[in-house]
C-alpha cells in the first residue's frame, strides 16, 4: 500500500524529484471573484497546500488573490494551472503561460499541464512546456486527459515524460490500462472529478461509509490515495473542504479497495479525450 505522510506535509515524489501533495483543492466551476477567493483562502487556512486551476476556468485571478490573502509563504504552496486548447502550439503556449502567471500574481508555477490533447498541436505545446521548465517559469510539467497513445507521441518526439497526467478517475471510471501505463512509465496519475460530480449514492459507498464511520466522499478520496493517485476534490463550502481532508487517519481494507474498483462501468461524466471536439 502507498505510504502516506498526511494531506499537507508530504506526498508522492514526481519523476523530476519534486514532491506533490496527495490532496489538493480543485476550483473547476468555482465562480470568479469572492467565491473562489474564499474557497482558496479557506482551504489554505485549513492546511491545504495544493491548488489546481486552469486558464479555461477563468478564475486564476481569484485563485491568486486567495493565495495572497492566506499569508502562507509561496514556497509552501503547490500551484497548478493548465494551457487551454485555443492557446496550444509553441508560441501561443509561451504567451498563455505568461498570461496565467500574471493573473495568478506568481513568478513561477509549480505545475503546468496541457489541458487536452489537441490533435496536431499537443506535441508542439509539450515542447513549449519543456522550454518553460528549462527557463525556470515552471517547476514541473505534465498533461491532462492524455491516453497512452497521446503520451507515446510526446515521449517519442521529445524524450521527456510528463511528471503528471491528470485524468477523470473515480469508481465508475477506473481506467486500468491507463493506470498501468502511467505506473510503468513513472508518470504520476492525478484524479479530476474524483467524486463523480456528487453522484455518491452508490449502495457500496453508503455501506462503506457506515462501516468506517466516514462520508461516501471520504471513502472515495481514501480509495484514490491508497492506489497512489493524487486527488483534487472541488468544493466551495468550508465544512466539505475540511471533511475532504479527513482521509489520512483510516485505511480501507484490500477487499474494500477491490470492491470499489469493481464498480467500474467505464462511465464518464466529462468528455472522452479520443472523441472530443477541440
Task: Please render the helix and strand layout as text.
Layout lengths: L24 E2 L7 H13 L3 E3 L7 H11 L7 E6 L6 H15 L4 E6 L7 H13 L3 E7 L3 H11 L5 E5 L7 H10 L2 E5 L10 H10 L3 H11 L3 E2 L6 H7 L9 H8 L17
Parallel strand pairs: 1-2, 2-3, 3-4, 4-5, 5-6, 6-7, 7-8
Helix pairs in contact: 1-2, 2-3, 3-4, 4-5, 7-8
What would you say this structure looks like, in words?
By secondary structure, this protein is of the alpha/beta class. It has helices at residues 34-46, 60-70, 90-104, 122-134, 148-158, 176-185, 203-212, 216-226, 238-244, 254-261, and strands at residues 25-26, 50-52, 78-83, 109-114, 138-144, 164-168, 188-192, 230-231. An eight-stranded parallel β-sheet has the order 1-2-3-4-5-6-7-8. Helix 3 (90-104) packs across helix 4 and helix 4 (122-134) crosses helix 5 (148-158). It starts with 24 loop residues before the first strand and ends in a 17-residue tail after the last helix. InterPro entries: AKR, Aldo/ket_reductase_CS, NAD(P)_OxRdtase_dom_sf, NADP_OxRdtase_dom. GO terms for molecular function: oxidoreductase activity, acting on the CH-OH group of donors, NAD or NADP as acceptor. The active site is at residue 57. This is Glyoxal reductase.
Amino acid at each position: 500500500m502507498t505510504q502516506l505522510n498526511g494531506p499537507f506535509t508530504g506526498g508522492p515524489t514526481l519523476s523530476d524529484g519534486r514532491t506533490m501533495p496527495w490532496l489538493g483543492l480543485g476550483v473547476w466551476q468555482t465562480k470568479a471573484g469572492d467565491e473562489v477567493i474564499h474557497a482558496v483562502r479557506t482551504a489554505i487556512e485549513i492546511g491545504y497546500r495544493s491548488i489546481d486551476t486552469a486558464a479555461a476556468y477563468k478564475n486564476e485571478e481569484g485563485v491568486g488573490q486567495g493565495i495572497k490573502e492566506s499569508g502562507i509563504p509561496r514556497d509552501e504552496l503547490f500551484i497548478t494551472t493548465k494551457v487551454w486548447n485555443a492557446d496550444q502550439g509553441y508560441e501561443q503556449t509561451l504567451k498563455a503561460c505568461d498570461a496565467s502567471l500574471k493573473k495568478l500574481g506568481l513568478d513561477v508555477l509549480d505545475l503546468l499541464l496541457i489541458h487536452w490533447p489537441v490533435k496536431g498541436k499537443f506535441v508542439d505545446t509539450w515542447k513549449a512546456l519543456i522550454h518553460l521548465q528549462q527557463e525556470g517559469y515552471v517547476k514541473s510539467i505534465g498533461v491532462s486527459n492524455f491516453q497512452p497513445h497521446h503520451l507515446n507521441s510526446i515521449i517519442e518526439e521529445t524524450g521527456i515524460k510528463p511528471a503528471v497526467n491528470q485524468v477523470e478517475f473515480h469508481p465508475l471510471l477506473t481506467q486500468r490500462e491507463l493506470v498501468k501505463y502511467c505506473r510503468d512509465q513513472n508518470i504520476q496519475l492525478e484524479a479530476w472529478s474524483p467524486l463523480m460530480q456528487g453522484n455518491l449514492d452508490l449502495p457500496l459507498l453508503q455501506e462503506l461509509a457506515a462501516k468506517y464511520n466516514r462520508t461516501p466522499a471520504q471513502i472515495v478520496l481514501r480509495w484514490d490515495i491508497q492506489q497512489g493517485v493524487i486527488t483534487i476534490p472541488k468544493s466551495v463550502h468550508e465544512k466539505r473542504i475540511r471533511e475532504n481532508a479527513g482521509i489520512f487517519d483510516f485505511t480501507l481494507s484490500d477487499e474494500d479497495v477491490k470492491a470499489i474498483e469493481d464498480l467500474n462501468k467505464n462511465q464518464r461524466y466529462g468528455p472522452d479525450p479520443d472523441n472530443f471536439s477541440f
